Amino acid sequence: MVKRVAVLTGGGDAPGLNAVIRAIAKTAVREYGIEVIGFRDGFKGVMEKHLVKLTEAEVSGILPRGGTILGTTNRDNPFSYQVAAGKYEDRSNECIEIINKHADALIIIGGDGSLSIGYELAQRGLKVVGCPKTIDNDLAVGQAKTFGFDTAYAFATEALDRLHSTAESHHRIIVLEVMGRYAGHIALHSGIAGGADIILIPEIPFNYEEITKKINDRLSQNKRFSLVVVAEGAKAQDGEMIINSYESNRPEPIRLGGIGEVVAKELERVTGIECRVTVLGHLQRGGSPTPHDRILATRYGVAAMDLIAQGKFGYVVAMDGENIKPVSLAEVAKGIRNVDIHGDLVTCARKIGICFGD
Ligand code: F6P
Question: Does 134 sit in the ligand 1 pocket, CB within 6 Å?
């Protein structure tokens, strides 16, 4: 029986993390009489035994707050833990020992990186439940949305609305670069919601001829501006993804970024139309979660705690239609979920004339 549960947040922050922490703490105390502790800064806090009690008072008022009160990191992996500059060791046994010493089970609120670590730890006998989070919406938990995604693409949509006026007034092409890593969910959703003319995503490599055709087509209808939304992981058919930097000390060493500038330069060259670029960057990850994300995060927190109380470990909570259905951690560890390029959303976008550059 679980008397004490530990929680940690891992990977990049996402709007809604605090809402999950709050829901876990409230459900644990009110419904099950279980004590909750939080490890600071993801697995780093486990290794450094840096923990705090999460009472109801501790989580009061955090529902609308962005970020995570526990702190997070996307650097520390107990299976390859940095013990000195450039020196890494497998410290997973120590990690399991520390968690078991302080709690009877662990809830990991994280993306594919942290949940894959959770899967490995579960394989070694640790009692783990996962809560899926990422603005990228790329977790392989069925067709479920992750919390943070709605807030991120709502922000990108607002950015497109704002850029629309300048593009139209100055007769320019404006390129908006959004995050999403190797998946185009943010670009696709915000592009449709924000009325983009061209959407470029990693799943559909593009060529400049097709994009230029679309822009010229608009010119022939006297539409002298165009809005392009490009996912950071998008690439030309004859090109590569644009890498901003390579940081070998992270589980995910590649940092993407820069494709917006590349696309804008080339479009200005081939069309002769003035181009501008806006890179949304971390603005997409910050700020208060939307009502949708607050509700989803709250439901995930409650569901994770229910699984813990029922003694069901090795699962990630996920939405299945209107209801929550646990999915095996093994599923998440298999890889990410990309945009379905033959799916409804892409088809719908094509039918209203959105160009994907293919
Ligand atoms: O996974 C979330 C995300 O924001 C991605 O969209 C992006 O590629 C990455 O994290 C950026 O990571 P960092 O904050 O470490 O630069």
Answer: yes
